[in-house]
Design brief:
The chain is α/β, with parallel strands linked by helices. It has three domains: 122 residues, Phosphohistidine domain (Glucose Oxidase, domain 1, 3-Layer(bba) Sandwich); 108 residues, Enzyme I, Chain A, domain 2 (Orthogonal Bundle); 328 residues, Alpha-Beta Barrel (TIM Barrel). Strands 1, 2, 3, 4, 5, 6, 7, 8 and 9 form a nine-stranded mixed sheet that branches. The relative contact order is 0.09. About 3% of the residues have low confidence.
Length: 604
Amino acid sequence: MTPAPKNKPRKKVSSEPRVLHGSGASPGIVVGRVLVLQRKTRRSGWYNLPAKELDAEVARFRNATARAETELVALRSRFAEDLSDALSIIDSHILMIRDRMIVDRTVDLIKARKINAEWALAESLGTVKKKFEKIADPYIRSRYADVKHVADRIFGILAGQEGDPLADIADKVVVIARDFSPEDTMRLPSDRILGFVTEAGGDTSHTAIVARSMGIPAVIGIREITRLCSTGDEIILDGFNGRVFLDPTQDQKKQYREYKRQHQVFSDDIAFYIQLSPETIDGHRVRLMANIETAGELDAVMKYGAEGVGLFRSEFDYFQRNVRPDENMLFTSYRHMLATLDPLPVTIRTLDVGGDKFVDQLRSGSLRLDLERNPALGLRSIRYTLHEQVLFIMQLRAMLRASVHGRLRILFPMISSQGEFARVMEIFNRVKDDLAGEGVDFDNGVEVGIMVEVPSAVIMADVLAGGVDFFSIGTNDMIQYSLAIDRGNEYVAHMYEPLHPAVLRMIKQTVDAGHARGIEVGLCGEMAGDVIAVPVLLGLGLDDLSMRPSALPFVKRLLRHSNSRQLNDLGGRVLQCSDGPEVRSFLDSYLPRTYPEEFGPHHE
């Protein structure tokens, strides 16, 4: 990247201040001048090589990957104590550098087609991109950005790039670029960076996660921002609401500086709530837990006062390893989590892969899930593990062996019928019998739950509740299946509405069915961390919410400023709405009146 010239021409639509909308990746308000960074083209064109030069070209590529790995390892060591939340991201990038789909395929292309390393790497990257584009789940699909960041690092080394252009930043500025890798973000000089804005990315990207960990205000996903801004321009960056104001007026700057002051007071107040009990004014308690993907996030779980892990996405043990983990590797990972958080509960979801979450390492024989006509309705999640029982049994054995080191809860995803769940429990009980026969210690009282995320499970929730210890509602898939909406489809994504009354009624029906059977009902979908949705969810009677760790203090404060009667009334009123816009319109007026500090004018 290089700074764009200060006199770069840009097209101004009007002389009025302009507001651009993106995603609020990291909270904070900044009023300052920008530095626009333009990324130089790093990729060389195609050229043919004589046979005698192929070994040298392969060596050049391998040296570039080795240097890239060395740089990442050094960066990891530099931040080992300060940014534990982000270390697993660097670890995943290190593993990508070693991945056979990138390294081995590139080497094979250099030799087979007698081409230069840059072109071979570009073709390998294109193959990986096509695989990710077939994935329906937007969260998993967005992980391609990490692969591209790794490839760009190697491209830069092959092109002879030296030094770190980010180190030359002298003034306090808002940095604007097409994209940042998580490592770029970590290298930003914190004493000179007010915030950053990018064209690419979403709020679940690893760049966004690192920005939040470092406390750098950021807005991402604003198309053509590098064209619309010039170095030296003044802007307002609103990382809370995902907005950028170009050429703000004096009144706007004054207003946002006051908002910044109010937010700082609010943030200081929020920190006070981290260690307080999550309960309403009249004593109704709701357990607040964390969703995590790797054991590296345990520090964040404790830092933000979570009462345990409500969802550990175990499939990421497969995504972030270069080889398929065996039983002992899984056991070590699970034992570490359970022992670290003991006596708090750790809920491990069994593999949620297949179809839209295809893991290349899990291919078995002729089973080709990437060729399914409709993967979202195919052999995925619990259906996949019932089909691949060796894999399923290995994971269950590892979980049960680890159970003596803490409080384990096992969560089975995408259960759609009582018969299907009976098959799951038959295997689970057989695994327990086998372990007992081998003299292996385990907790025979491990809690077992199911994710309620397909309509049939909601309808049959009263029956399913009779055989489990808890329900966990997965709203991401519940919304997809009940509204027939694919968030990854640009033509219908706007119809994806978490606050649709049909979705809210399904949540309420599940809660009532669980309570009638005396079991707890929680929610671990993205809605749990949506500040607009939280009061509604609390009003629907949920016993626990599980969310990204950084959202916990705000939700706890909101809970402690509520009373149960008021929340129940809110839940009843939204269930009477006819559609999502009516729910949101009601909340737009209700929330600022009821929670003026949380949803008052300075949060607009």
